[in-house]
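Students often ask what a holo structure prediction actually looks like on paper. The answer is less mysterious than it sounds. You provide the chain, you provide the ligand, and the output is a string of discrete structure tokens encoding the 3D arrangement of the protein together with calcium ion.
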Amino acid sequence: MKFNRTIPGFCFLILVFGFITCDFDEEQDDDAEPIYSVLTLVLNHSAVNLRFGKSETLIPELKGPGSENINLGSVSWATSNSAVVQVNQDGIITARDRYYAIPAVITASANGLTGTCIVNVVDPGVNANVGASLNIYDDFYSEKYPGYSLVWGDEFEYSGKPDISKWDYERGYVRNNELQYYREENANVSGGRLVIHGEPVSPQLRDGSRYFNYASASIHTKNKYHIHFGIIEIRARIPITSGCWPAAWTLGARYQNQVLGSLEWPAVGEVDIMEMYRSNNVPNMHANWCWRAPSGTWNPTWNAAAFPLSSIALWHGENMDQWAQKFHVWRYVWTEDWIEIWLDNVKLNDQDAMQSNPSGVTPARPFQEPHFFIMNLAMGSNGGTLPGNTDSVWPLLYEVDYVRVYQKN
Ligand SMILES: [Ca+2]
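The corresponding structure tokens follow.
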């Protein structure tokens, strides 16, 4: 994402609620038969966990008053995401995406009625080693990671400015032709949260030859705390307004670091644990890694995943605005072998931790190196067009309840 990159032209579309069960049953038990007071179209499953490549038949049935006397008629089928789960006109669904998938919603329509089934694609063979060793799939909200201890973090249970023993600031203009001027006053701690607020400013702020109509903040841990394997948890509530670009991410600790020896992006490695911005005015959640491409000092190779926020909200049965009103947990699980990015209890993307840069480039393996952590609210650029200055949406708030880092004992 960062550094004027070109957005990768592909989006992995994805899943994984199924991992939270130990035996990976392919079907969930539906609830006991409810009483239907009105004519209703129901399917034989309201939710299915389906293994990659497998199929299941959905059977529609009318329920409710007089249903026994009504012919169902022809049924038309649709899937919310054909990249994840396909459905044919006989109601047979097939799981198509291997490792990840946002749950797909299958809809049957007949007689002016619709029935739905939520389908999660599961594949317990993929990355099961990580899940088994960390035991994190059984209870997502458990704060206990067997064999791990909390080693660093900020609960933001104080008031004032972010703790300077942990955080530093980016200032002024930094990158990507973004429209905001970064300054300390736009990052504050209150109510148990870090609050980064983005806002229009007048008169303009100036950094060299650049002038800025907006102000925001970016805080980071460079030379304060460097993460080297472990689990990062971030609980946050993010703005999704057009034009905003909230992010929680890492860079190799030697990035332009006068203390450790200055290396450049993307060779140092970048991890986008959380990034939300619009593509074609559709809000997308991104989960990415990048490192250096085979040629060109500044050229990245991306392992990128993007998800329409509307689909993510659907995991919770919500629309985007409802989703954005709540806090959510991003989790970065980084072992010496493998790395995963999770949002709530769904894996968004994963990466081989041994990934190499091209021969002769330092560092040889960017995800074997310590990284520092960054949280910022960018505006414009990839974020798209901002609302007018008099819009009631201001200020844009990026609120962080906590950041926690766990490491193996
Ligand atoms: Ca807190």
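Helices lie at 128-134, 309-315, 320-324.
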